[in-house]
Design brief:
about 425 residues; alpha+beta; four-stranded antiparallel β-sheet; two-stranded antiparallel ribbon; about 10% strand
């Protein structure tokens, strides 16, 4: 979830620059996230191993539970509110079949193994270290109130343990969101937590029967895990098909339909919170000349490169979109001011100063006119679109061979004086 910044000359926390760059890719927010919640979790997990008693011995079913935990961590259900994990039942079984002091390390190891075997990026593998805090409160409560094998008479203790687990997991997620300048919406956490709540009794039933009926327990969990995997895959395929219908095939950005949906959603959130959202309209300058000079293939490469520059210049919570042709737009998530919106416009402009290299070896600098506006209490998205469109076309009309128009309210030119120029000698001013 942050777009980060540039890596400093010295690594965070005394880590050498090369190690810092390798681990975090220059993303300061990722570094802070990993240090505060990833490395610290590993330290706490090791402390649990050293200082806590076993609680109960290792059971043969524990090996199967670990394998099922890894397998179930490899798939997730993508719902309207986001991705939902399905490993809660397997985690509960691990909790009662692996010595309690080992559970925190086993939990994070399973998450890391699952990410590595699924081909996840290094960033996602490292961030999996931050996502296992739910195991700590469950272990501590069981160590204090109900160590030993699972039995239904301790149901009230297990209820306390898992409530504490859910609360800590949501609290850690909320802190991580706030450190990135985002807000965790509790109403969107209802479905993911509900899924965990529903999977918990399945895990408890298996844990209670693990000693007397290990084969039946393993068979039940294999069936549950397989069913969830099939449902997750089918649902993901349907979501992928829907996503393709809402994405521009050339740039991968949302198309107009998804942009309209994002804009309406942002407007509703702004109305509830009494804050402002932002809107940018962008239009490439002289794109027809690009097509005429470099062909439609070159024009497509310019569009794709422009889309990437927009992605680099916006936050994860923003929604850049291609409306059609050489027209783009960005929904800037709330809360934001007109000054902040214009700062994003200037950032997009700076990103476009880097020449675009085409497949034929040509290098050119493309520019765009940008109109910024905000919406919220007293300003509808329709009015904001009109304001942004007006500012964009003011720049278009003002543009001439000797002019260097500016983004309204900033000192940054919308395009450099050099305009568009490639090695063929054809250029625009």
């Amino acid at each position: 979830m942050g777009n980060g910044g540039t890596a400093p000359d010295q690594g965070a926390g005394g880590i050498g620059p090369k190690v810092y760059a390798y681990l975090f890719g220059g993303d300061r927010e990722a570094a802070i996230d990993l240090i505060l919640f990833g490395f610290s979790y590993v330290i706490v997990a090791i402390a649990c191993l050293i200082f806590l008693p076993e609680g109960h011995s290792f059971m043969v079913v524990g090996a199967a539970a670990i394998a099922l935990f890894i397998a179930s961590s490899n798939f997730e259900l993508e719902l309207r509110v986001g991705w939902v994990g399905c490993q809660q039942a397997a985690f509960v079984l691990v909790l009662f079949t692996v010595p309690l002091n080992w559970v925190p390390l086993v939990a994070v190891a399973c998450m890391v193994i699952a990410r590595v075997t699924s081909g996840a990026s290094r960033e996602h593998v490292l961030r999996s270290l931050c996502n296992s805090w739910y195991s700590i409160p469950a272990v501590l409560v069981l160590e204090a109130l109900a160590p030993g094998r699972a039995q239904w008479s301790h149901g009230w203790v297990y209820g306390i343990a898992f409530v504490c687990s859910f609360v800590v997991a949501e609290a850690v997620a909320g802190i991580r969101f706030s450190l990135r300048g985002q807000h965790l919406k509790l109403r969107e956490e209802v479905v993911p937590v509900s899924v965990d709540v529903m999977l918990t009794p399945i895990g408890l039933m298996g844990a209670v029967n693990a000693g007397s009926q290990p084969i039946a327990t393993c068979a039940m969990f294999v069936g549950v895990t397989g069913l969830l995997a099939i449902l997750g895959r089918e649902h993901a395929e349907r979501r992928t098909q829907t996503e393709r219908a809402l994405r521009d095939p050339l740039t991968g950005l949302p198309n107009r339909a998804l942009f309209d949906e994002a804009l309406e959603g942002c407007e509703r959130r702004c109305a509830r919170a009494g804050v402002q959202g932002g809107l940018l309209l962008l239009d490439l300058n002289d794109f027809k000349v690009v097509n005429d000079t470099y062909g439609h293939g070159g024009g497509d490469q310019v569009l794709a490169a422009f889309a990437n520059r927009i992605r680099w210049s916006t936050r994860a919570v923003d929604t850049p979109a291609r409306l059609g042709g050489d027209e783009f737009a960005i929904v800037l998530a709330e809360p934001i001011s007109i000054e902040d919106a214009e700062a994003v416009a200037a950032k997009v402009h700076r990103a476009m100063l880097e020449p675009i290299e085409l497949s034929g070896g040509e290098r050119l600098t493309a520019t765009a006119a940008i109109g910024a506006a905000v919406f919220g209490p007293g300003i509808t998205t329709t009015t904001a679109m009109e304001h942004a469109d007006k500012r964009l076309y003011e720049q278009k009309r003002a543009r001439n061979p000797g002019a260097r128009p500016e983004v309204r309210g900033t000192r940054q030119p919308v395009w450099p004086a050099a305009g568009l120029r490639g090695p063929r000698g054809a250029g625009l001013r």
